[in-house]
């Protein structure tokens, strides 16, 4: 009864379903993480070697390794820790399992189609060697087909899903899977320190990546970082519903990257939010709703994996988006934050400089790409996938399909965000804009949302020269709106 715990999007040694079950059912458990070359090599080939996610993972693994050592030590096992490999995970896991002579591999579910494909391969190779593969639910509260309609179908609309989720939830769904008390089963790392199995977590350069600006940002890594963020968020959670839409204020939790990589347990945060929701604290209810959106999009991806390639609603695949040279120029302007719409450009500066973007702004820039620039949502989805530190296929695809109206429970296609009124409403004094576009900081509040409408004198006083210090708008919103309504008219036609 030896086991191998394979960490993926669950980088913590507390309240971890697979780790709990491994420690409980095996006498000796090794822990492994693989920097998967199948994921990383394409980034290296595309020259994307400064990736905040890779650095975030690396920093979080250092802490996980220390934590596993401390838990082992507390049980009188001094040489425990994390085995870290840099290889193709689908081959490496069966190889490590065989060399360590384990009878079972434990991992938490990952319903990303590429991960499922990888896991099926691993399961096959393990089975061939007579080794078991145990998967556990850990990443979401309810997964796959756990919340269903009365007729037994998968929900495609959020509000009824949320109501069913809230009806179904019990304390037992949120109870932690303890780890520390079971630490006696942690096995010593094989071989001498510094040997093949027993060495510190590799440096970024060892896996062909470079440092990013992550350490300069106010984004703490690892389980300890997640706890700090969560504690500080709980102090302001009662104001979440009022503050969450204003990008200039510290409204949201900033936990998305931690939930993505599992440096904090979804059960732990959902349990706190649920208890406060039951006490009638409105901010907590609204935040809990966001966590339910997360479950919702994960079950959509698990049950409708076609959304990765195609529209959730097939008729939306008929829409013809712009392409060709001009479309590419518009796309470059969007990516680089030079569309001439300050709220869009400031938001793109935020993602480019930090890897994070405020939720309200994700909706604004996504709508702008699809419905003002007329570009395919896949283009924006891919850009977010490359740049977001919290990139998650389920949530990102859900967000883009929502904005392009092609998704389940999406924004109706004729509802088109006006980037100027969004800016006036959610960044009224232009505080966010000024932070990310210092070249516009001198403009008065009433000009900052649409500088092309300002009087020459106001621009001059603000030190702004349109077309030189700041671009003119690349499209006219009213005209773009008409084009979009025409473009989308095909969804109404049969066939
Ligand atoms: P909070 O407001 O504190 O919310 C708490 C948590 O709830 C988040 O950390 C997240 O895990 C979850 N959550 C919140 N909103 C959503 C949502 N709409 N869908 C699913 N989960 C949600 N979120 C990602 O985690 N990864 C992505 O790649 C991603 N891409 C997006 C793309 C677009 C076009 C849009 C419109 C939204 C996207 N979101 C994505 C959802 C949302 O914008 C982020 O989760 C949120 O901004 C993260 O900040 P926070 O942790 O401070 O959020």
UniProtKB/TrEMBL annotation:
UniProt KW keywords: Chromophore, FAD, Flavoprotein, Lyase
EC number(s) from the headed UniProt entry: 4.1.99.3
- UniProt-recorded Gene Ontology molecular function terms: deoxyribodipyrimidine photo-lyase activity
Q: Which residues form the Photolyase/cryptochrome alpha/beta domain?
A: 1-141
What cofactors are annotated for this protein? FAD; (6R)-5,10-methylene-5,6,7,8-tetrahydrofolate
Give the superkingdom in one word.
Bacteria
Q: What is this protein called?
A: Cryptochrome/photolyase family protein
């Amino acid at each position: 009864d030896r086991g191998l715990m394979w960490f993926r999007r669950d980088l913590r040694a507390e309240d971890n379903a697979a780790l709990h079950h491994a420690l409980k059912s095996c006498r000796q458990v090794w822990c492994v993480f693989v920097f998967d070359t199948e994921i990383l090599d394409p980034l290296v080939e595309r020259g994307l070697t400064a990736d905040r996610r890779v650095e975030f993972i690396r920093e979080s693994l250092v802490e996980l390794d220390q934590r596993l050592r401390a838990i082992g030590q507390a049980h009188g096992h001094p040489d425990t820790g994390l085995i870290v490999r840099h290889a193709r995970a689908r081959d490496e896991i069966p190889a490590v399992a065989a060399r360590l002579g384990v009878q079972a591999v434990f991992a938490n579910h990952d319903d990303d189609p590429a991960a499922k494909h990888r896991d099926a391969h691993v399961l096959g190779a393990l089975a061939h060697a007579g080794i078991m593969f145990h998967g556990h639910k850990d990443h979401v509260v309810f997964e796959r087909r756990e919340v269903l309609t009365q007729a037994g179908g998968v929900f495609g609309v959020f509000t009824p899903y949320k109501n069913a989720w809230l009806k179904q939830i019990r304390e037992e769904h949120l109870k932690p899977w303890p780890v520390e008390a079971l630490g006696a089963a942690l096995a010593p790392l094989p071989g001498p320190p510094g040997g093949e199995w027993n060495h510190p977590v590799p440096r970024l350069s060892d896996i062909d990546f470079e440092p990013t600006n992550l350490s300069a940002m106010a984004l703490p890594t690892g389980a300890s970082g997640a706890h700090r963020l969560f504690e500080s968020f709980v102090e302001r959670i009662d104001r979440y519903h009022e503050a969450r839409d204003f990008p200039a204020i510290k409204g949201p939790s900033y936990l998305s990257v931690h939930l993505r990589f599992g440096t904090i347990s979804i059960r732990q945060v959902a349990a706190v939010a649920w208890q406060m929701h039951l006490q009638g604290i409105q901010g907590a209810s609204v935040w809990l709703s966001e966590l339910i959106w997360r479950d919702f999009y994960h079950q959509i991806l698990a049950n409708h994996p076609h959304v990765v390639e195609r529209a959730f609603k097939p008729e939306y695949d008929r829409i013809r988006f712009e392409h060709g040279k001009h479309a590419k120029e518009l796309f470059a302007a969007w990516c680089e934050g030079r569309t001439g719409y300050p709220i869009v450009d400031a938001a793109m500066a935020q993602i480019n400089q930090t890897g994070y973007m405020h939720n309200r702004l994700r909706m604004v820039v996504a709508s702008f790409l699809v419905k003002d620039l007329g570009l395919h949502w896949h283009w924006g989805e891919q850009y977010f996938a490359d740049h977001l530190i919290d990139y998650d296929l389920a949530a990102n695809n859900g967000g883009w399909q929502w904005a392009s109206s092609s998704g389940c429970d999406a924004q109706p296609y004729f509802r088109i965000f006006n980037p100027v009124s969004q800016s006036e409403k959610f960044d009224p004094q232009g505080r966010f804009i000024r932070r990310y576009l210092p070249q516009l900081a001198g403009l008065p509040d009433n000009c900052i949302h649409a500088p092309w409408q300002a009087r020459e004198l106001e621009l001059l006083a603000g030190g702004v020269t349109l077309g030189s210090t700041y671009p003119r708008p690349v499209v006219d919103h009213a005209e773009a709106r008409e084009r979009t309504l025409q473009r989308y008219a095909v969804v109404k036609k049969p066939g």
